Amino acid sequence: MTGKTRQGRSHVVIIGGGFGGLACARELGNRDVDVTLIDRRNHNLFQPLLYQVATAALSPADIAEPIRRTLGRYRNVKVLLGEVHGVDAASRTVSFDGGRWISYDYLVIATGSEYNYFGHEDWRPLAPGLKTIHEARLLRQRLLLAFEKAERSTDREEQKALLTSVVIGGGPTGVEMAGAISELGQAVLKQDFRQIDASLFRVLLVEAGPKLLAAFPETLTDYAKNTLENMGVQIRLGASVSQISPNAVQIGEKSVRAGCIVWAAGIRPSPAAQWLGLETVARGRIPVDMHLSVVDCPDVYALGDTSQFLDEHGKPVPALAQVAKQQGRYLGRSLLKRMAGEAEVKPFRFHNRGNTAVIGRHAAVFDFGRWQMKGRLAWFLWAVVHVLLLVNFEKRILVSLQWMWRYLTHNIGARLIDENTRNIPATTDIQETLR
Amino acid sequence: MTGKTRQGRSHVVIIGGGFGGLACARELGNRDVDVTLIDRRNHNLFQPLLYQVATAALSPADIAEPIRRTLGRYRNVKVLLGEVHGVDAASRTVSFDGGRWISYDYLVIATGSEYNYFGHEDWRPLAPGLKTIHEARLLRQRLLLAFEKAERSTDREEQKALLTSVVIGGGPTGVEMAGAISELGQAVLKQDFRQIDASLFRVLLVEAGPKLLAAFPETLTDYAKNTLENMGVQIRLGASVSQISPNAVQIGEKSVRAGCIVWAAGIRPSPAAQWLGLETVARGRIPVDMHLSVVDCPDVYALGDTSQFLDEHGKPVPALAQVAKQQGRYLGRSLLKRMAGEAEVKPFRFHNRGNTAVIGRHAAVFDFGRWQMKGRLAWFLWAVVHVLLLVNFEKRILVSLQWMWRYLTHNIGARLIDENTRNIPATTDIQETLR
What we know:
Chain A is an alpha/beta fold and 435 residues long.
């Protein structure tokens, strides 16, 4: 595998096919440059709706698209399935899948983030996060299996444990999961099960901080809290998790038995900084300048969750899809300018398109900075925005319509338990899959 | 778990939630009887389209529905997720999941069939069949991974091997898989890959017998053969497979390296007969009389692939979904009659709705016994029939439309490689999942 430039054209290597990496590749598509995008997965994921895969409203394929198809129409863009484990800035090469390497003229690092277990790596398999299709499928299966086991159980205590879900982390993902699990339970337990006492079903949302959705203004966080509580979600604020075992969580003094445990308690950047042997900032993020250029690494750029960009007020931009998307688009354009020999390129500026979290059907919050929005209208806006994003993402209108349809009609779409996970997978199994 | 009858009502236990078991349960739904349906999976599968999951045209959830939802509206029907391992006709109990048991007044065995490796169980993980979602997903991932590896390979011989698929068995499933794989390759290799020489892509269809689709009349089998060959499928008739290794198949004298190996070479009944300690017929099938009643087992009935029913001419009915469906419906009705004390119940008669196999887009064959059909019109009829069956199966019109849409527009829908199978799973892994 060589990355040498053809016909003297520059070769841009992009690591990561998420929102940022793809936006960058699209900008460079069918232009006078060679591009190689490397990802360890063959698909890009519409993560904002991943929680709906975990709660059986969507199929994985509804929100995932093969990177090859996304970029198929750009003849100058190559896609490689491979896992990067090193970058040599001196020789300008990227090494992947042990032994293989590719050289670059410009390198874009868009490797995103993963869930942070704050030193408790052993918790990862017990309480999966929500970053990959596999994790979403795993959570979905644990949830549904717990229901099935409860249906068969004759021991009320065991039933109660199996029908308890614990969501750790009160950020957007935690709030969305807690709301969606509670809706799933209410939708299926009464109607489709015969033995289960639906009153035993409960969802616990545990947040170490003093409030939910810390990034949002007070009015919205209060609204989120009240709405969730009205949906039957039990919220524990200022409560920290000290231990997780396969079927229980230690919350403060109390040990809670649970059939499904979800981790949504904060992310950490990908290990990309280590590849470069860089001094990192903000828990492992790669420091970049106003042009997303990595300090002291010529022609190496980083964007999205794995980088630390300070806006004009010296404030770091949040870890959001829209940031990665905007940075990717910006970087694609500015790289073209640099290759064209343009002297000065404008620095990146983040345009806040609004921060949102959905709490449940008919309930969401929007924060546009200057003004806020909550309730039914916000939910409707959320749904419309996501259908449009999904259509744009997938170029598959029917899928989006179907999603909207299922979602509005409470038709639980994808309640599948794979044959291969009827028993909760062994630690090693999951470890391997989350590598 | 007790199966004792409530309010003196009879308790019917149905083992298996396939076409037959569900049809039977539906007939008994909301009638004056208690019903328990046991299946080791939580979903029922529209197997006629499973090959499209294996070839990335459909998502698993598109053709699978939670049994609980299918039967949710029948308040007298209970669904149990469990794996049956014994039947005691004397005490009228069914034991499942080791230790658990349930008692019945009437027992319906609808456990279907599995792929037969004719004594080579070690081939099962190397050449998966096409009976479960997991197998379909596995095949899909092997196919797509082989393409990805070929894209990265610089060794032409290795590329050729990775781009070779071998389908073993020339029945409907084998023909459908061979056609669909060849269409998938032609659809994606040229457009989405950069390094691959698409001319290296090939599909081998191996049949030990003298012709494809042996159950169909000459005219149709010839048509199928010619059509497949025009699609670029290489057909080996009268060729037997003597050995399968992880990446190669021994066909007669010749060893063929392959990136994906599919097994479609015949089925065998479920081990249900052994539970009953019965004298079996026709390679392990349960002999039943004209009323589907198991010989020498009072109040035990068997239907579909796992049973052997002889029609009025003494000819065994074929192992088809429509047979199981008709027998299930018949059995439900006749059980109600027996409980109502009706003296004599009419024997089961099979009504042939036509036997079909799809070869590729715009090509299918239909055999209605008296007359046949092939080509574009047959394909169109096949597509319409399956959309209707799917709608009826799923009660989800949009899914069916979406499928039709994708199928007609050649839009490859679900080209996902799970993170957890980037490397082909270890034998043990698959063994476990196919249990």
